[in-house]
């Protein structure tokens, strides 16, 4: 293959394994350029589909709890004729590609679609947690995080006997790392963190494999510490401030990292 610039090693390995050709890249670019992305200027949001605003609002107030999930109690032709969403879609786009939206657009999209989303899918709450934390709605983010974790720990779907919800479990991890730790890896500045500790948590700790190095992130109420467990030094940003963590020399930032905006729960949790 010919390249306009030297590709990164990971991309070269991908090309070797898949046989990717230049013409395939051009085809995908043409498809992306021609893709229709409906946007309503009055609502100020990208649309679920181009006829979404033409549908009747769903009467949530008159829908009893025992009628959820909606897809098990209403015909799809009933659901699809209303402004109601089973799981996050447009909101998911803001989580996967945050750099394609402004902060105002991400907040507006979350505020608009969150009341219309029932979360009937086990894959919904984890994404909603990330999106809520991203726009500063930490109480909502914490509630969604608890709901995501409860899919298996409390068998809220009632089907744990058939096996754990592996994708939801991965999403719960993402809700902690991308949501409350504020981890972003697509930044041109390298890895970025903007951590906040959930009200009902005493501490969040997790490792990240970054370019072959293992970075431990430890979030406490008044301190966040980054340390290299294994590998080369890791350079990243903490709320826009660049730091470099070296093995044996952790980097800490003092501050107030507790959200203080969610109702106290029956018992704090500690995740490692």
Task: Describe the fold and architecture.
Helix 4 crosses helix 6 and helix 6 (124-134) runs antiparallel to helix 7 (138-153). This protein folds into three domains: 1-35, no CATH class; 40-173, no CATH class; 181-261 and 268-272, Maltose phosphorylase, domain 3 (Sandwich), CATH 2.60.420.10. The chain starts with 8 loop residues before the first helix and ends with a strand. Strands 11-8-7-6-12 form a five-stranded mixed sheet, with no helix packed on it. A three-stranded mixed sheet has the order 5-9-10, with no helix packed on it. A two-stranded antiparallel sheet has the order 1-2. The chain has helices spanning 9-18, 22-34, 76-79, 90-96, 103-113, 124-134, 138-153, 166-180; strands at residues 39-40, 45-46, 56-57, 82-83, 192-193, 201-210, 213-220, 223-230, 234-238, 241-245, 251-254, 269-271. Mean pLDDT is 89; it is low at 263-272. Helices cover 32% and strands 19% of the residues. The protein has 272 residues and is α/β, with parallel strands linked by helices. The longest helix is centred in the middle third of the chain and has 16 residues, at 138-153. It has eight helices and twelve strands.
């Amino acid at each position: 293959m010919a390249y306009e610039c030297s590709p990164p090693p990971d991309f070269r390995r991908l090309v070797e394994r898949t046989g990717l050709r230049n013409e395939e890249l051009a085809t995908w670019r043409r498809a992306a350029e021609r893709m229709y992305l409906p946007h309503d200027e009055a609502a100020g949001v990208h649309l679920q589909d181009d006829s979404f605003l033409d549908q009747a609002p769903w009467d949530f107030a008159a829908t009893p709890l025992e009628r959820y999930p909606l897809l098990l109690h209403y015909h799809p032709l009933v659901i699809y004729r209303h402004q109601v969403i089973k799981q996050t879609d447009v909101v998911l786009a803001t989580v996967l590609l945050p750099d394609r939206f402004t902060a105002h657009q991400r907040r507006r999209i979350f505020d608009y679609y969150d009341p219309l989303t029932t979360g009937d899918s086990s894959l919904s709450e984890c994404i909603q947690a990330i999106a809520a934390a991203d726009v500063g709605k930490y109480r909502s983010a914490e509630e969604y995080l608890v709901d995501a974790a409860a899919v298996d720990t409390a068998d809220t779907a009632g089907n744990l006997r058939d096996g754990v919800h592996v994708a939801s479990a991965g999403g719960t991890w993402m809700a902690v790392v991308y949501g409350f730790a504020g981890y972003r890896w697509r930044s041109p500045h390298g890895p970025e963190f903007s951590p906040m500790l959930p009200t009902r948590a005493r501490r969040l700790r997790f490792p990240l494999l970054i370019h072959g190095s293992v970075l431990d992130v430890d979030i406490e109420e008044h301190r966040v510490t980054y340390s290299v467990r294994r590998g080369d030094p890791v350079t990243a940003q903490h709320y826009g401030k660049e730091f470099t963590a070296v093995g044996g020399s952790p980097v800490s930032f003092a501050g107030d990292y507790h959200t203080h905006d969610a109702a106290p729960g029956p018992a704090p949790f500690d995740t490692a």
